[in-house]
Known about the structure:
Layout: E1 2-9, H1 10-13, E2 22-28, E3 31-35, E4 37-39, E5 41-42, H2 52-57, E6 63-66, H3 67-72, H4 76-81, H5 85-89, E7 95-98, H6 101-105, E8 111-113, E9 118-121, E10 128-131, H7 133-143, E11 147-149, H8 171-194, E12 200-205, H9 211-224, E13 228-231, H10 240-249, E14 260-262, H11 268-276, E15 281-283, H12 286-292, E16 295-298, E17 301-304, E18 329-330, E19 336-337, H13 342-350, H14 355-380, H15 384-397
Parallel strand pairs: 4-15, 5-6, 6-7, 7-11, 11-12, 12-13, 13-14, 14-15
Antiparallel strand pairs: 1-2, 2-3, 8-9, 9-10, 16-17, 18-19
Helix pairs in contact: 7-8, 8-9, 11-14, 12-14, 13-14, 14-15
Amino acid sequence: xxxxxxxxxxxxxxxxxxxxxxxxxxxxxxxxxxxxxxxxxxxxxxxxxxxxxxxxxxxxxxxxxxxxxxxxxxxxxxxxxxxxxxxxxxxxxxxxxxxxxxxxxxxxxxxxxxxxxxxxxxxxxxxxxxxxxxxxxxxxxxxxxxxxxxxxxxxxxxxxxxxxxxxxxxxxxxxxxxxxxxxxxxxxxxxxxxxxxxxxxxxxxxxxxxxxxxxxxxxxxxxxxxxxxxxxxxxxxxxxxxxxxxxxxxxxxxxxxxxxxxxxxxxxxxxxxxxxxxxxxxxxxxxxxxxxxxxxxxxxxxxxxxxxxxxxxxxxxxxxxxxxxxxxxxxxxxxxxxxxxxxxxxxxxxxxxxxxxxxxxxxxxxxxxxxxxxxxxxxxxxxxxxxxxxxxxxxxxxx
Length: 399
């Protein structure tokens, strides 16, 4: 179940020269998602430190689940008993699950990749396990995610193999990896069809930092006619200019009538640039991970809440932000709950109170989701170019 309605393209209005930005509505089994969109990451069936009600309050329409980790714990039997991930975590909106490929790849010496799949030791209990395209599709079918991802091999910028560890991945290595991912895409597609999974399966463009390999991967996947496509293998240790180069190459070359997903990216600036390049969907752990480490995103730059200058500051994190941490919520009786000062958040962080990363995560995710709301509004009004310029000026101003 996937329907992609392209509502508006930026170049058609002449709003920003060279822009591939577009507005669309993505209909999935559990609802409609307006794009461009940011998807909070819920690795273990929860977005870390954030109540589901808070996600709804901040406007989250689709979240992620992690196939690998949910396979390890609680396992397919438990997940099957709940009818999938939606029932298990009590989230009635769309969910996208990754394939588990990145997590298996990141195990390093604990795994062995072959044409058939990946043999590895469980990081939970040491059991010998095997992940293949077919196994990944079976797990994701049990999870019943609205969007499943093909199993691919994430091509790293720097090799993690014992004999070549730390060396930049060569063109030959990137080609070998990319071509296997293409073969795995076909196997994923065949198994997805055999299982009669009613949801959508995305293919993943790989090829490392080599544009011609990216194009070969893209062409092969488009020929398979997936409902949607992702660009993977970026933000995996490469310099920022290399990431931006690949971001500028691949997304807008994918079919215009299908959704495009940039995996694991990134900063607010990366998201705006991704929209320029024609990306519809983003995910990244940065909002919640940075929140846990005391870094807050604001309209006027990044804020380090641990800095001593915030100890006596009565102001909110961001005067323009309407999240629970910054502005609070008005109760039925007219009183306000929430709306905290920088001084209070500084205090919570210094005392290692669990409320600190919770409020910080709410703020960061709200910032990301609101950024996408503002991008969509600017595309609706053919003012994306002006929005982008103002965004850059505001972020450069600093807090």
